[in-house]
Amino acid sequence: MKKRLLTVAVMALMLVMSFAMTASAGPVADTLGALGPGPHSVGVDLYHATLDQLSMGDPAIDSPASVTVASGVATMTLGVSPMTFGEYTGYLEKLEYYDGGVYTDEDVVVVDYDLDEVPDAFIFPITDETAITTGGGAVIGAWQKVQVTVKVEGSSMPVSQARLKIMF
Ligand code: HEM
Predict the structure, then answer these.
(1) 17, part of any domain
(2) For the domain that residue 64 is a member of, what is the CATH number?
(3) What is the pLDDT of residue 2?
(4) Is residue 22, in this structure, part of any structural domain at all?
(5) 3-class SS at 132?
(6) CA 78 → CA 71, 133, 166, distances in Å?
(7) Which of 15, 26, 30, 134 is deepest in the core (most CB within 10 A)?
């Protein structure tokens, strides 16, 4: 009898664990999910796609940004500001995030508070982040690949890839 009770208890535990694992295996938030539910202020820099240096577009990215974790999905609200480069002024017109397969602007909300056609913020899911860890293995941030389309007054810039460095 005791043995059967134990078997039932173990099966119930396995069932609960399998539900818990299904719930956490959402589309996102492997790394940022560690922040826990709710809004969080995070440091953010725009880095070059491949080189270990800031992107030329970093001044156009506002830091801190906000990351909200809900139902296993991490959503970033990233403020942006026009910047100058040499004699030119430019701003981020379109932000696409890498979803693990392609760069996409699906589910990206462009915020333009003053309706001047210059975006003030982008709200988008963080879908394919790579953890930044300390030597001891603690997760202290994440990389998320993005693609930017920039409007340069009186000139142009090619659509470029870069990385957001997100620090908790
Ligand atoms: C202010 C006017 C701007 C000018 C004149 C300008 C010009 C340029 C030029 C000439 C390049 C090199 C392109 C190439 O040869 O591949 C470049 C690269 C790049 N730009 Fe801009 N840009 C401006 C603003 C911005 C803004 C606002 C962003 C993003 C928020 C941005 C993001 C990038 C990125 C990600 C690259 C790839 C290289 C890197 O990361 O440094 N740029 N830009």
Answers:
(1) no
(2) 2.60.40.1850
(3) 56
(4) no
(5) strand
(6) 20, 22, 11
(7) 30
42 CB within 6 A, ligand 1: no
Ligand 1 within 6 A of 141 CB?
no
The reply to whether ligand 1 has any atom less than 6 angstroms from the CB of 126 is no
Indicate which residue's Cα is closest to atom 26 of ligand 1.
57
- Ligand 1 pocket check for 151: Cβ under 6 Å: no
Q: Which domain holds residue 104?
A: 28-167
Best mutation site among 80, 103, 157 for ligand 1 pocket (most ligand atoms within 8 Å of CB): 157
State the Cα–Cα distance between residues 144 and 150, nearest whole angstrom: 19
Residue 7 lies in a domain: no
1 found inside a domain: no
Q: How many domains, the chain?
A: 1
